[in-house]
Amino acid sequence: MKELSEFAVEMRDVVKTFKTPEGTMLNAVDHVNMNIKNGEFFSMLGSSGCGKTTSLRMMAGFEWPSEGEIYIEGQAMGHTPPFQRNVNTVFQSYALFQHMTVYQNIAFGLEMEKAPPDEIKARVGRVLDMVQLMGMEKRFPKQLSGGQQQRIALARALVKLPNVLLLDEPLGALDLKLRKEMQLELKAIQQKVGITFIYVTHDQEEALTMSDRIAVMSKGKVMQMGTPVEIYERPTSRFVAGFIGESNFLEGTVQSINGERANVLVPALMTEVTGLNTGKVKMGEKAVVCIRPEKIRISDEPVSKQNSFRGAVKTTTYIGSDTHVYVEVGKLTIKVWEQNRVSSLDPKAYYTAGQNLTLNLMPENTLILADA
Amino acid sequence: MLKRLRENKSAQGTLLVTPTLLWMIGLLIIPLLLTLVISFGSRDADGGVIYGFSFHNYLRLFGYSTNCDAGQASCFEPLYVNILGRSLSLAFNTTLIVISMAYPLAYFIARAHPKQRTTFLMLVLVPLWTNFVIRVYAWMMLLREQGVINGIIGWLAARLNIPFEPLQMLYTPGAVLVGMVYEFLPFMILPIFTSLEKIDNALFEAAADLGANPFRTFLRVTLPLSMPGVVAGTILVFIPVMGTFIVSDILGGRQVILVGNLIQRQFLDARDPTFGSAASLILMILTLIVTYFYTRKFGFGEEIVVA
Lengths: 372, 307
Ligand SMILES: Nc1ncnc2c1ncn2[C@@H]1O[C@H](COP(=O)(O)OP(=O)(O)OP(=O)(O)O)[C@@H](O)[C@H]1O
Ligand SMILES: [Mg+2]
Description:
Number of domains of chain B: 1
Number of strands of chain B: 2
Bound molecules: adenosine-5'-triphosphate, magnesium ion
Structural class of chain B: mainly alpha
Order of helices and strands of chain B: HHEEHHHHHHHHHHH
Radius of gyration of chain A: 25 Å
CATH topology of the largest domain in chain A: Rossmann fold
CATH superfamily of chain B: MetI-like
Number of strands of chain A: 20
CATH architecture of chain B: Orthogonal Bundle
CATH class of the largest domain in chain A: Alpha Beta
Distance between the termini of chain A: 47 Å
Largest sheet of chain B: 2 strands, antiparallel
Order of helices and strands of chain A: EEEHEEEHHHEHEHEEHHEEEEEEEEEE
Number of helices of chain A: 8
Shape of chain A: elongated
Helix content of chain B: over 70%
Largest interface: A-B, 26 and 20 residues
Oligomer: heterodimer
Helix content of chain A: 10-25%
Structural class of chain A: alpha+beta
Radius of gyration of chain B: 25 Å
CATH architecture of the largest domain in chain A: 3-Layer(aba) Sandwich
Shape of chain B: globular
Strand content of chain B: under 5%
Strand order of the largest sheet of chain A: 6-7-8-3-9-10
Distance between the termini of chain B: 45 Å
CATH topology of chain B: MetI-like fold
């Protein structure tokens, strides 16, 4: 009996070094550690070139780590070739076999397993049903729309019922509307079949809405790993706070630390700001105060003596559900997203340039991060 | 006048195809018709043509001798039928051997590092810069009794004290086959290479990902997707091999006579253009029939057409 591992896929200290055409060495993946739990919808999120595809290709077996080890269901993979791994890939380019019909494409993987013909037929039928493409069996990939081809690529991988499905920006080529539909559908399919999904995307909204957990990557390194709420509400670095959603950053020096709270002197505001101590800051060292624009409260008079700053409105942008207000405070411009809770035609309801007001940064909504 | 032309789409079309059409009529249709007419005639004493309408050239080609004595038991003369059969089977064999040599080579080149790929392709192409006839003569130097190959074997045999009689390689069907394979190999390598190179690497990865080992990936993905190249190459090799006479002339001598040689000799030596014309037309029809059935089955080497 194979010992069941808690993790579907583990990357332990994995490095992948490429020789670039310019002759230099590049760590496309740089000492990455990741644990992906069984049945999880796990996303790798990061900007272009951060090593997402390379990580995924190493899990699939198309590339081998230069250092470190990848475990699938607790088994060290070493140089196991792709056709002996219990994972399947949905390629960004779909990589459908143009000389085979939809049916033949999907049946291919089962034929390779030497499944009996009637089982193949039943399973292909079931998976076609799941991706809502019944009746298209006899078509060739070229006779399908982009969205339909995407579903075939998904069906071809799903039909194998792998433990892990690797998806490399599977919705990247679809238009926005179809993309949203497919996001919901993918998530529903994942919950239905209970297969671990490892999903590569550079669309943060996609990652936040679909994932159980996210790994935010940059330059080959994992910057932070956690649930969407953790990533958004408790970013552990300035990079993550800036990459996921928007943030105001106020640079300064740590003045005092009392347990959960830390005080930072912000020279540009000529005052101290109090916020949550994220544990990585040290007395007297540089730190950055980080607050999300929607978490700042606007008032006429200061709400408390702490973290309240007088400022003047510089510009505003009305975007329907919200108004984006840019406020000059000291030498800084701070962005504030105000929800438009009241329906009004009066421009004054949405703030006007030059208007004086107070910004209140609740210490519990304000993070003090090490300035790395 | 010009304005009228600008408005008249069908006149424009006619004008555009006219040069091609004239070319085709002048250099293809008219010569073909002439050949047809001549093939029904008979020759006079000086090798001129007496026009007429008789099938005797065709009958002779298929073995029914016209000057057959009444007393003879059988009047069937298989000489020319044998030549036709030999040409066909040589073309088939050449094509098969060329495919089996060219495919691995093309595969190797397609999989080579892009930098080396150019070098390998050049190596395939460079021989084509030398004249066809000269390259066939080179084979004569290699194969003849005092040639390079016999020389090397003889030298080795002398060293090892083995008695050695020079091999008779030149003027054999084998020599002609070797020459044909050599001449036409590049025309198979290039189309196969092109279709192999066009296959997206992700397809190989997808096949492996779905559980296919390299061998099954080759059978189920690589081979079907490279068939257009094989088909195109076959057409490029089979048809010229059927008609060429230089290789068999130089490497086959009087021993290996193909349709090409037959036709050439009828025009130049035997001075019977009527029989030569009949043979030409039969060669063309034979080639057309084979190509027709072949392309009906495999297409013309275009992309896989979606039904
Ligand atoms: N075969 C290779 N040879 C050399 N460098 C490579 C190779 N593959 C990837 N790289 C480099 O490794 C880095 C990471 O590439 P990777 O494809 O993993 O990025 P990614 O995160 O998937 O980006 P994207 O969002 O653009 O797809 C890039 O800088 C890329 O140029
Ligand atoms: Mg990528």
